[in-house]
Amino acid sequence: MESGTDLRPKEMGYLTPSSASAMSDDKDSKINGTGYSSEAHMNTIAQPVPHEKNAEKDTALTGSNEKANEHSSDEEDTTEYPSGTKLFCIVLALVLAIFLVSLDMTIIATAIPKITDDFGGLADVSWYGSAFFLTNGGFQSSWGKAYKFFALKPTFLLSILIFEIGSLICGVAPNSLCLIIGRAITGLGGAGIGTGAYTIIAFVTEPSKRAMYTGFVGISYGVAAVLGPLIGGAFAEKASWRWCFYINLPVGGISALIILITFHAPSGSKPVAATWREKLLHMDPVGVALIMGAIVSYILALQKGGQTEAWDNGEVIGLLVGFAVILVVFGVWEFFQGERAMIVPRLFKQRLIGVSCAYTFFFSGPYFLVIYYLPIYFQSVDNVSPTISGVYNLPLIISVTISMILSGIFVSKTGLTAPIEVLGAAFATIGAGLLYTLDVGTGTGKWIGYQIIGGVGWGAAIQLPIIVSQGSVDPMDISTATAIVICKSS
């Protein structure tokens, strides 16, 4: 592709693995709203290549994929996308669902003191947040496979149901253990909602407008994460911490009802045909168990190291070694599973998938650290209430929101994502570094300005890896690629 070529939205299309390889050497190539593209590969759907060691056991599945691809190739140009009120309702439902998932990640940050007062102890505090992230991250890829092998609509509704059940358990929890179990169930449902929402967006919006609508969902995600401590603090102070979870029930119900009434899965999202045994194997239960074991070992090591035990304590060292060993075993297992792996090795042959995963891993991590850090700073250093500490986070909320909107418009109009990702990373790095300098007596103008700088960076680019990864694979792999990228941000 000639340097400087402008890929307008009308030219956006899917990418074949061969074209991805050829284009990866062109450093001046531009990324459109859904990934790299060229006119020569406009209407070509990628063909999955089974892992050599799994060629025989995946033959039947590959055959069904070929038929699905042929069908989607024939109909790609005639795809009808929902519009008007119907599209608005679908996007609204997805925004509400993502809002709840993101809210649940941070809402208990300011409510934990009240929770520990009720349950009488600090021993389990670290698990109130970790239990959610454990299942949310561990099951992302499994949900991605579920959306590939099962109908999109009922699978998404199932994820909302699981999320609601977990929220109810948290709300009525009589003790700390019950709350932790509820948080784990909520995280499991939240993983399905996250993957499902971005997958649905990819199927119901035109490629030229996908960045904009993904941005709307992203705004909900970013704003809810920052609002979480504010809402949690308000509930803890004015009502009860249990409302941090009860709030999910009516809002989640509304989202599910809207999807039930207005969303009809497009032809391109038809599930891949396979036997029930094959579907179960593609869920990769062994891989899930391994990654969960690795994460638990890591969390326990951090919980004990430097807290209840010294870092050179045998138990802490054993947990860290166990984490590393299990992670290696997981990697080997995934490699030999091929198409059945929760993280499909084939997808990483496309450079943009690996780059998107690495980018979101290093980009999203500091964002959540800042979200947890700021309320603690304002409450402990400035000695303000949980509610006021949430108000002090408004500069971050506003800058993230505005930046996401402008970023989505820019990508939709120009087809460029790489410049935004570079600038976003630069602003986020500078902002995070400045926020690290906050201390006793830091002036109001500084902590407001620092939040704005970081918010501009995070808001501009935090959703772009999902858009790029979706555009670099064929339709049947969209849910899997989406899940892999989201998993790295968890």
Structural notes for this entry:
- The chain has helices at 17-23, 59-75, 84-106, 112-119, 125-138, 140-149, 152-172, 176-204, 210-238, 243-246, 248-262, 276-282, 285-304, 314-337, 351-380, 386-391, 394-414, 418-436, 444-461, 464-471, 478-489.
- With 490 residues, it is mainly α.
- It has three domains: 82-263, MFS general substrate transporter like domains (Growth Hormone, Chain: A); 285-341, no CATH class; 351-472, no CATH class.
- The two termini are 35 Å apart.
- It is a multi-pass membrane protein.
- Keywords: Membrane, Transmembrane, Transmembrane helix, Transport.
Shape: globular
Helical content stands at 55-70%
What name goes with the CATH superfamily of the largest domain?
MFS general substrate transporter like domains
Count of domain modules: 3
Structural class: mainly alpha
What pattern of helices and strands is seen along the backbone?
Answer: HHHHHHHHHHHHHHHHHHHHH
Average pLDDT metric: 78
Distance between the termini: 35 Å
What's the CATH architecture of the largest domain? Answer: Up-down Bundle
Q: Which topology of the largest domain does CATH recognise?
A: Growth Hormone, Chain: A
Largest sheet: none
Give short descriptive properties of this protein.
490 residues, mainly alpha, Growth Hormone, Chain: A, 3 domains, transmembrane, transport, MFS
Q: What is the topological layout?
A:
Blueprint: H1 17-23, H2 59-75, H3 84-106, H4 112-119, H5 125-138, H6 140-149, H7 152-172, H8 176-204, H9 210-238, H10 243-246, H11 248-262, H12 276-282, H13 285-304, H14 314-337, H15 351-380, H16 386-391, H17 394-414, H18 418-436, H19 444-461, H20 464-471, H21 478-489
Helix pairs in contact: 3-8, 3-9, 3-11, 5-8, 5-13, 6-8, 6-21, 7-8, 7-11, 8-9, 8-21, 9-15, 9-17, 13-14, 15-18, 15-20, 15-21, 17-19, 18-19, 20-21
Biased composition (Basic and acidic residues): 1-11, 50-59
Subcellular location: Membrane
Biased composition (Polar residues): 31-46
